[in-house]
Amino acid sequence: MNAVEIEEAISELALEAFDKDEFPFAFLRAFGNKETTIKRLRAGTTNKSDLGGVLQTNNIHIAVAGAGEVTHKLGELRESPATARAKARFILSTDGVDFEAEDLETGETVACEYQQFPDHFGFFLPLAGISTVKQLRDSSFDIRATSRLNRLYVELLKDNPDWGGSEQRHEMNHFMARLIFCFFAEDTDIFAGDSLFTDTVEQMSARDSSNTHEVIGEIFRAMNTWAADRLAKKLPRWTERFPYVNGGLFSGNVQVPVFSKIARSYLVHIGNLDWTQINPDIFGSMIQAVADDEERGSLGMHYTSVPNILRVLNPLFLGDLREKLEEAGDSSRRLLNLRNRMARIRVFDPACGSGNFLVIAYKQMREIENEINKRRGEPGRKSDIPLTNFRGIEFRDFSAEIARLALIIAEYQCDVVYRGQKEALQDFLPLDAENWITCGNALRLDWLSLCPPTGIGVKLHSDDLFQTPLDQSEIDFENEGGETYICGNPPYLGGTVQSAGQKADLEALFAHRARNWKSLDYVSGWFLKFADYASVVPADCAFVSTKSICQGEQVARLWPLIFSKGVNIKFAHTPFHWKNLAAHNAGVTVVIIGLTCDSSRKKTIFYGDGVGETSKRTVPNINAYLVAQPDVIVEPRSRPFTSVAEMLNGNKPVDGSFLMLDLDESREILRAAPEARTFIRPFLGSSEYIKGQLRYCIWVTEEDKERALSIPAIRARVERVAEFRGRSKKELTRRGVRTPYKFQQVRQRGNETVIVVPRVSSENRDYLPVGIQRQGAIIGDRNFALYDAPSWNMAVIVSRLHWVWIGTVCVRMRNDFSYSSTLGWNTFPLPHLTEKNKADLSRCAERIMLAREAHFPATIADLYDPDGMPTDLREAHEQNDEVLERIYIGRRFKNDTERLEKLFELYAKMTAPDKAVKS
Predict the structure, then answer these.
(1) Within 10 A of 516 (CB to CB), how many other CB atoms are there?
(2) Coarse DSSP helix, strand, coil percentages of the chain, rounded to the nearest 5 percent
(3) How far, in Å, are 152, 183, 839 from residue 199 at the CA level?
């Protein structure tokens, strides 16, 4: 269950009649416990409570108290030996009137009336395995509001199915944006009187909901009509208290969907929430999922944490503003210069979604500006930072509307905090009709027209804030010139999962400038668009991206185009997990890359896992692999440029599986024809090699074909191979009809010693799972292989140095390494090895193999489990790393960063002659 689903279940529980016997089980059920778990607790099988309550090991101890005894019962739970034995994190007591709970890990407590405990549901989210980062706890209101809006949205579509279709979906989304504004306005004094909107709907619409849509429509019409014009417009007298809002929010069509009694009830419940608690930087991303059929199933999971956003914005420009604030001290002149500078800064997010980055940037800048005003003795001064300096492009219309609304709410909230409620209200209405968020395709639109180099930008033809034609005229920036910062978290999408339209977007950008662009991630388009923009307008950018654009062949295809525009990398955050806030912390491994046209800027690399402390280094240069080395591109090589052995592919059957045998099939053939033993060999694909699975193949050489085909079982299978290949549409496969007894591609004789290198293996292992197979095994094409190579080659491949190189220059498949012989092995920078070096490394390889054999029958997967690697095997690898790394620098490297920098230094030296020849 995600956070929204949990909130819904908890809210429903609070509305039910309190049942002292059922409450503990219902509470646990609301947090996603399965019925089998509840059944075991109810039966006492897993319930170890010593107070007559319900105790779930490692989670919670719940006890229902007698009337007025809640605090006393909570104390008993705290002192209970069973609570300690079960390592319960939470204790909870209630009598159906009062409710108290404590987090024994943090010491935090909750005490409230029973009906209000859903307001604190975020406190208990660890019960569902959901991260309790502070932001999720603080966003409990946003989750509750999203939950209720979602239920309203779904209920309205039941009675208004046409509103869910493509023709009216925009109207439905626009209607929801209007409702959100009304709920916020009635709780923040924008509307005169508490709950003006909700109370008016409740009082003026019939209980059977027959005219609810008409009442709401009249309210919307009033907010689109100046007071002086309302009599002529024949508006009902009961709408007089609603102010003129417009700004495009209530202009145009004011049609409202029909309400059922349930939908009307949902609307009233939503209005009764305290909307002063809305957090626009969180709420916007959550509410956009309400209007998206695909995202609604994972509602509440798709918002970006503020700390992650600040990892982008701080090194992009906010950190510099704070440094200048610190340097200014109390100097009135320097503070004024900084304030004037900030008033001209433009922040542009060309993949803005619901506006998270823009809202956070705005709020952070207002905070800095407020400190300037306080130091200058001007507290409460009207902001000089125009909202229209925060621009965006968003493909989905509802998200674009929510982004504008989130910025409007953020501006009002900042005015309340820094200027006061009265001043904030005075300047808030009517809303400005200018449109500074564009709905469209960021890779097709002209960024220069949306965020131009001068004070001129786009202006809407009409006064409708929420209509965005793409043939826009110009809108003036309030302040001329200034700095431009482009930021965001564009869609990633690898080359194999892009839609036809997305492929066309990249084709329009790349086809006339590069070959082999089709494998580029979709996010690459944003980097190239920035490079084009920055060649005209001095600007900096920072985008979140999948790490794959800094690995493998994508580097050679993308980054020379970026660098050719005079752009260089200003800062980078090395790969970390960009977690959402769903259960089990699903997420994606990303990098953050900041670009600039100013080559004089200092360069900074940030390191960290995205959760704990982040360290940073100032470096002379950052290359496309996010390494502090010169701008070199690792390109595939057909042969190694060092003394290592050649790495080839494994053998490729292309046989329709007729040459493949499982254990039973091989035994059956051997029972019928023992002489077939010569032709049945162990077969190792990557899975068979790593997981120890048994598989066999029929292996026939040219000289033995007649003897092999005299065996009926083998001949029958070979005939099936011929049929399979003959039906193929590929000419190369059809050619194999002439030799159906052989694999399509044969790389070995069959009697070699082979060093096996799986093509794909998990990056969670500390070492690549490479090994030596003795004579007889046939290596499949899911592996690379070194045939009859000296064993010191294995010592090099299993080293941490090689692991680091592969992880950087080869492609990743999700969280797996995708090994490449041409990119990873043939390019690996290896110093000159003496015969003694090779002998020492050979002994290291032998020690590793002996350590593995000592744990037979453990598989490679067992032995290299990150949490279960045997001590002697780890020591053998450590010794191997010691020997190899001393060859490089005379000592062990301090960390992977130092390893990688040394490897790139060597690579640059080794490839210098190649570059000289080409030039």
Answers:
(1) 11
(2) 45, 15, 40
(3) 17, 11, 86
Do 365 and 372 touch, CB atoms closer than 8 A?
no
Task: List the single range of 471-475, 816-820, 889-893 with lowest mean pLDDT.
Answer: 471-475
Mean pLDDT calculated for residue range 812-817: 69
If one compares 148 and 36, the residue with the highest pLDDT of the two is 36
**pLDDT higher than 60, residue 778:** yes
Query: What H or E segment, with its residue span, contains residue 563?
Result: helix 553-563
Cα angle: 102, vertex 108, 113; to 5 degrees: 60
Residues 6+ apart with CB under 8 A from 174: 398, 401, 466
- Using left for φ > 0, alpha for ψ between -120 and 50, and beta otherwise, residue 814 falls in left
Q: Residue range 842-871: average pLDDT?
A: 94
Q: Count Cβ atoms below 10 Å from residue 54 Cβ, excluding itself.
A: 24
Please state, in angstroms and rounded to a whole number, the distance separating the CA atoms of residues 768 and 774: 19
600: CB partners within 8 A, 6+ apart:
none
C-alpha Rg value of the chain to the nearest Å:
33
Residue 742 has pLDDT above 90, yes or no: yes
pLDDT over 90 (residue 515): no
CA 127 to chain centre: 23
**Rounded CA gap, 240 and 218, in Å?**
11
* Whole-Å CA distances, 717 to 471, 650, 709, 722, 776: 66, 22, 10, 9, 21
Within 291-416, strands assigned E span 346-349, 390-394
Q: Residue 703 has which token pair?
A: 């000289």
Range of lowest pLDDT (88-92, 130-134, 575-579, 897-901)? 130-134
3-state secondary structure 598-614: CCCCCEEEEECCCCCCC
Q: Where does residue 834 rank: exposed (0-12), middle (13-18), buried (19+ CB within 10 A)?
A: exposed
Q: How would you classify residue 467: left for phi > 0, otherwise alpha for psi between -120 and 50, otherwise beta?
A: beta
Token digits of residue 675: 């002489």
Name the pTM for this structure: 0.80
pLDDT level of residue 131 (50, 70, 90 thresholds): low
State the average pLDDT over residues 247-253: 79
Give CA–CA dist 607/620, Å, rounded. 16
Listed in sequence order, the residues at least 6 apart from 761 whose beta carbon sits closer than 8 Å to its beta carbon are: 686, 690, 768, 769, 816, 817, 819
Which range is least confidently modeled, 137-141, 646-650, 865-869?
A: 137-141
The answer to whether the CB of 91 falls within 8 A of the CB of 84 is: no
pLDDT at 401: 82
Give the span between the Cα atoms of 700 and 680, in whole angstroms.
9
Closest CA to 616 of 589, 587, 592: 592
Indicate the residue type of 752. E
Q: Express each pLDDT in 296-338 by its tens digit.
A: 444 333 456 788 899 999 999 999 999 999 999 999 999 999 9
Read off the pLDDT band of 586 (50, 70, 90). Answer: very low
CA-to-CA distance for 296 and 7, rounded, in angstroms? 15
| Alpha helices, H only, 739-834 | 792-797, 800-809
pLDDT at 668: 95
For residues 58-73, one letter each, b for 16 or more C-beta atoms within 10 angstroms of the residue's C-beta and e for the rest, the string is ebbbbbbbeeeebeeb
581 DSSP assignment? S
Q: Give the Å distances, CA to CA, from 289 to 132, 153, 286, 489.
A: 21, 11, 6, 17
Q: What are phi and psi of 211, to 5 degrees?
A: -120, 15
Q: Give me the count of residues in the chain.
A: 919
Query: Cα–Cα distance between 503 and 517 in angstroms, integer?
Result: 10
Q: Which pairing describes strands 648-649 and 760-762: parallel, antiparallel, or unpaired?
A: unpaired
